[in-house]
Design a protein that fits this description.
- By secondary structure, the protein is α/β, with parallel strands linked by helices.
- Helix content is about 50%, strand content about 15%.
- The chain has a single domain, classed as 2-enoyl-CoA Hydratase, Chain A, domain 1.
- The protein has ten helices and ten strands.
- Strand 1 and strand 2 form a beta hairpin.
Length: about 270
Amino acid sequence: MAEDLVIVEKDETDPFITVTLNRPEKMNALNVELADRLDEVVREASLDPDVKAIILTGKGRAFTVGYDLQGEDFEMGAEGWRDDISANCRRLRNIWEAPIAIIAAVNGYALAGGLELMMVCDLAIAAEDAQLGEPEVRHVSGPPSLMMPWTVPMRHTRWLMYTGDMIDGREAERIHLVNKAVPAEELMAEATRLAQKLARMPSPAIKFAKASLNHQQESAGFTSSWAYNMEAIASLHASDSGRHWMGLLKEHSLKDFLTIREAPFKDLD
């Protein structure tokens, strides 16, 4: 059932919930069913007066490795990609706009669309050994949204989006990609303390602070930035090189595809 793809747990003492992506056998890869279910949970929580904060995390070895690369035919033209990317952006924007605080508790991998998901959350705490990055650039792809320039300085954004390098939680904290990095065994306790603090704040304080901060980003061109990126990535995917890589994905297992993708960088990473 779709409900099983996301586990929702209400705290016993404070008005917040923990939302756990529950596809551990696929490292919480975001297929349509999981992405839609998460969107539904966030919408419901935003309307619930008894929920003032959300912790978002993943079950198993990953927060989420991003959009599922298996089970779908990605050989589409620009129009098909535009529709696909727009749908993903709508879901991400719903999290960004939610009138309550959302904390990403990053266990394990947060990659590609999974990193975008982390970045649209208000705050992020990562395990020190978590792995974060945009490795999809290595197979002629890119994130559906463009959150990184709104999150970290441009020098770091260019590095991560040009190289596809992955960084650990400690480095993510250093460049301000996350607020804090903690030992893995302390991650949920740290996220819970933060959620308790936010849940005890008067609701309008965070609601209107978030609205004002989001408006500041809007005024600086946030929506225009995302719109341009959607068109750019749709064109990238529909290019000859993009079609070539999507064809390889269709022809090979995911493991073999990733081996082919990473081969040129084996001696450089």
